Structures are given as C-alpha cells and as structure tokens.
Amino acid sequence: MTTIAPESATVEEYMTRAVATVHPDDTVAAVAERIAAQDEYSGFPVTDDGHIEGFVSASDLLLANDESAIATVMSRDLLVAAPEMKVDAAARVILRSGIQRLPVVDEAGDLIGIISNADVIRSQIERATPDTVAELKSTIEQAHGVETDQARRDVSIDELRPTQSKVYGDELQGRQYELQRGLAEPLVVVDNDGELLLADGHHRSTAGRELGIEQMEAYVIETDEHVALELEEAAADAGVDRIADVEIVDYARHPLIESTERFRDDE
C-alpha cells in the first residue's frame, strides 16, 4: 500500500531544475557582473560539464582580484541534497545551515536542480492533510475489503507503534518549535482494531515526547476488524515498538545530505 503523507514530499518534486551556474574558469569580474545585473541570485553553483565543483557567493568576490578564476575563490565544500530527500528535512538543513539554496545532485555528483527557501514555502502551502487521510482510508478499504471510520482525536504518544526507526535531529528541532507555538499538523494514525500504527508524523510525535507531551491530536482511520496492513510490515521492519525506541540522528549524518568532498574523493 503506497500512501502520500504530508511529510513524504521530496526535494525532486519542488526543486528548480533550470539552474543558473558559472564555470570554475570564469573570472571574478564576469561573475560579479552577473550578480549585479539581477536581483534573483546572490551567488551561483560552480559546475564543470555538469559536475558540481563548488559555490560562489557575492561575499566571496569582495576582496578578490577581478581577473582571478572563480575556482580560486569559490567554496569547495558545500552541503548538497539527493533528489529523494524529503522537503521537510531539506528545510531544516537550510534553516540550520543559514543558507538560502541547497544544490541537488545525482549519484555522480552532477547538478540536477536546486531547492530554495521559496520552494520550501511552496511545498508547505500545498499540503493537504485531510485529502491525504481520505486517500489512505480509501486505499485500506479497497485493498482489504473492510469498512473504516475516520476520526480526529487525541492519541497517547506512548501507545503509538512507529513504522520507521529513525528521525533527524535538525527536523526534530523544527517540529519542537512548531509544537511550542501550536503550529504542528495532526498525526496520521491507523487504529487497526486497537493497534495504533503511526502512518505519518514520526518527527512530530518524537518532538512531542521530547517536550514531555503525553497526547497529540491525530487524524485516525479506524478499521472494524484487524487486517494485515503493509504499515504493520513497515513497523516490523523498523524493529522498534514505541516512539521512545526511535533513534534520533544528527542531520549531518542524514543519508541524503552530504558534503561535496565525497565527490572529489571519488575522482
């Protein structure tokens, strides 16, 4: 069963694919002119035949000789994201790192897009949790031939069974910020004849537990009998029984965010 939950939107869905770039051999003066000629960019990814080599910002050019090559002043070690990374995770990296745009690269280190603050904002505006819950409800009914009810109620965090084993510390901080200000969306839970399977909201529920919150609001899909859901298989694969068992991983070790240093090492 495949579901599209609010936290599942990927960088690839929202990134800008037509990226303005500069070449390592371009001069400081030429790039400075490009930055001054428009208001949209304060810097550019530096690529050579599509391969990302670094990033150059306006501040990198301030004290540089006009005739110097961009390769001599650009930042070589920068954070890049994979296209399958979740938008929410990318948003936390952008926020924590103090950058405005995060380059997106493929396995070979070739630039395939860039995700910006504006792209992240657009992804948040387009969220539609009630529609997502309705889609999940319909999928369960059609796949298993059962009737389900939908409710919006508080659930105990300690009674939730996770369907993933890890959350990321940078995103967790963002979720705590939202919870403290009453901005967090409800969780999405399947009540499978008394077993509460967490379909969406692992960062939110972990953040709530870290803040000492015992109950959280959730969209709950209730089955009238126990059915063998793929969510149960996901929970078994995760190898954790409760939210307290979920591992909190530092964002710098996120499997889909890395430094360009790796691509230089592979060459």
Task: Describe the 3D structure.
- Keywords: CBS domain.
- With 267 residues, the chain is α/β, with parallel strands linked by helices.
- The protein folds into 2 domains: 9-124, CBS-domain, CATH 3.10.580.10; 128-252, Conserved hypothetical protein from pyrococcus furiosus pfu- 392566-001, ParB domain.
- The protein is 33% helix and 25% strand.
- It has helices at residues 11-14, 28-36, 58-61, 87-97, 117-125, 129-144, 169-180, 202-210, 230-238, 261-266; strands at 43-48, 51-57, 79-81, 101-105, 111-116, 148-156, 160-161, 166-168, 187-192, 195-200, 215-223, 247-249, 257-259.
- A 5-stranded mixed β-sheet has the order 6-11-9-10-7, with helices on both faces. It has a two-stranded antiparallel ribbon with strand order 1-2. Strands 3-13 form a two-stranded antiparallel sheet.
- Helix 4 packs across helix 7.
- It starts with 10 loop residues before the first helix and ends with a helix.
- The model is unreliable at 1-6 (pLDDT under 50).
